Every structure is written in C-alpha cells, then in structure tokens.
Amino acid sequence: MFSALDISTSALVAQRTRMTAIAGNIANVTTTHNEAGEPQPYQPRYVVFQADPNVGSFGAAGVRVAAVRADADAQPRYKYEPGHPDAIREGPWKGYVAYPDINIMTEFTDALEAARAYEANLGAIEVTKDMAQQTLRILA
User: Fold this and answer.
1) What is the pTM (predicted TM-score) of this model?
2) Residue 68: Cβ-neighbour burial (10 angstroms; 0-12, 13-18, 19+)
3) Which end of the chain has fewer beta carbons closer than 10 Å to its terminal beta carbon, N or C?
C-alpha cells in the first residue's frame, strides 16, 4: 500500500511542477524582455515527465520531472503597436512589438488537465488510505 502512496505522491509533485510552469507562461504572456533586461520575448516553459522505476513496485512505476525546458525555437508573435516603448525602431518589423508565442487557451487547457490529474491522484491517495484503515480494522 505504501507503494501506491509513493506513486501518487510522485505524480502530485510532477503535476505541481507542471502547474507552476503553466502559471509562469500565463503570467509572462506580454513579457517583452528576458531576465537580463534585453529586448527578447519570454521563452515559454514546458515540463517533460519521465517514468521513475525507483518509485513503486511490482512493475508499477512513479513519475518524475525529467526537465523543464524553455521553447527556444518559438518564434515571437508580432503585434503592431508603434507607440509602445518596446516597438521595433527600424527594419521590416518597424512599429511592431515582439511578444512571446503563448496561446492562452492551450495554457488554460493544460492547467485544467494538470488540475484534474492532481485531483485524481489525491483521490487515489484517499482510497489507499481508506483501504489501509479498513485492513487495520479487520485485523484488530
């Protein structure tokens, strides 16, 4: 039973990390500068999960976060705003502002999916806990 708790707990940690990355993407949807203050749009972050055979037993594996990757290949989304202080001053994109390529609907959908997976794992923990309590009642 402890193995089932460990597997569900590993999934809770992984989904929490995923939700944090999604929240960061949503919060930075209009960020036009990087961490160093240079004019570069925010690079969206995505969480990569991996099976963790060190968690679980009897052929079941937990999950762990393999990496949190920035999407460096994402092209900026350009919006024409010539009065914006970050507008491009010259060249073919003159008057445009480079925003991160983050789709809010996709992020909200991913957040909903992560929340549901989190809730499902909480439910599995509750069922496992109830089964352990019932077992102790039968044995005692």
Assistant:
1) 0.85
2) middle
3) C
